[in-house]
Design brief:
The chain has about 350 residues and is mainly alpha-helical. It is about 60% helix and about 0% strand. The chain has a two-stranded antiparallel sheet.
């Protein structure tokens, strides 16, 4: 009798708790569906934009005139704002779903950030200074420091707040640059300045090309000391080694390359405008345009749901090698342009 009563009470309790379990299950399912839809919506790379139109709109909104360096600086500001204000905002420091589960867009963001950091440093060191002993622009120095802040800090301070601070310093520099009554901020459109920035770009693209090519693995001889019989190194390294990108990092490198080339296309288009006279004087404008043309295919639509990593001449495509091919051709063209600017 007691056993029947206990059984009856247990069954009654189970019947009462099961609706709660079903409701919880439905809520969890709805949450996961919403998160997945948000992740799909946020996983979108911004489109390229017209750099001259962007600068004209910015100048009109701030009642400023287009001067030398204005288009490139306005483009740099737009890159920073796009990094923070695209669909889903800035994702690299997210700690909640769906951002914390995503890796394509955070790697794309890091690629864009790399180019922002490089060109901001070029502004401080080269573009804004007439010679090596001249005083650096304090707004640009502060902007560079802000953009070199950690890219994944969630708070205290958040990465977004530091990068917005960097954008504000760039805006202050641009306002001073466009003010004819204030000569404190300058942008020097010279061949040597452009050449120095391109040297950094060439190094970045060379590294990207090697990392993308390593998706299939390759044996590589050590060329560190090649060409200099008296060269030395601190420690011994193997004369030959095999490099291969881990399988889980292949798409990370690919999307970082997409981000870097997206930003670089826009910066090169802007440089063509601000360094137009220099390029024409060296008969080098078409060389810069060819670099842009080589990079533009890197932004074509990816129709495959996955970044494929086919091996050699196998059945599957290898997206990393295709990207490396575009970047390598652009890198070779940059080397030719640098030589032309140096001797032209």
């Amino acid at each position: 009798m007691n056993w029947k009563f206990w059984t009856s009470s247990s069954a009654s309790g189970a019947d009462q708790s099961s609706p709660i379990g079903r409701i919880a299950g439905v809520l969890i399912a709805i949450y996961l569906i919403v998160v997945l839809l948000l992740g799909w919506w946020w996983d979108h790379e911004p489109d390229l934009f017209g750099v001259r139109e962007n600068a004209a709109d910015y100048a009109q909104a701030h009642n400023e005139k287009l001067v030398v360096g204005y288009i490139t600086t306005a483009t740099l500001i737009r890159l920073g704002n796009t990094l923070l204000d695209k669909r889903g905002g800035y994702l690299s420091n997210d700690v909640f779903p769906p951002g914390v589960w995503m890796d394509n867009m955070p790697n794309w963001e890091f690629g864009v950030l790399t180019q922002i950091r490089d060109v901001t440093r070029a502004y401080r060191i080269d573009f804004s200074r007439s010679q090596s002993q001249s005083k650096e622009d304090m707004d640009l120095a502060e902007a560079e420091g802000s953009f070199f802040f950690s890219n994944d800090s969630w708070m205290f301070p958040a990465t977004e707040s530091k990068y917005r601070e960097g954008i504000r310093f760039l805006q202050q520099y641009l306002t001073t640059l466009a003010d004819p009554a204030n000569p404190d901020a300058q942008f020097y459109s010279r061949a040597d300045n452009l050449q120095q920035w391109l040297l950094g770009v060439e190094t970045r693209l060379g590294s990207l090309s090697q990392r993308l090519s390593a998706s299939v693995g390759k044996r590589q001889l050590n060329l560190d000391l090649a060409g200099d019989a008296s060269a030395q190194r601190a420690t011994e390294v193997p004369e030959e080694k095999e490099t291969k990108t881990p399988w889980l990092e292949i798409d990370d490198v690919f999307y970082e390359a997409r981000g870097q080339t997206w930003a670089l296309i826009l910066l090169l288009r802007a440089m063509e405008q601000d360094f137009g006279d220099v390029l024409d004087n060296k008969n080098a404008r078409v060389s810069l345009q060819q670099i842009i043309r080589e990079l533009e295919p890197t932004q074509e639509t990816i129709w495959s749901p996955l970044i494929l990593n086919g091996n050699g001449f196998g059945l599957l495509a290898n997206h990393s090698l295709v990207m490396a091919s575009y970047i390598s051709r652009a890198n070779a063209a940059i080397s030719d342009l640098r030589s032309l600017l140096d001797r032209g």
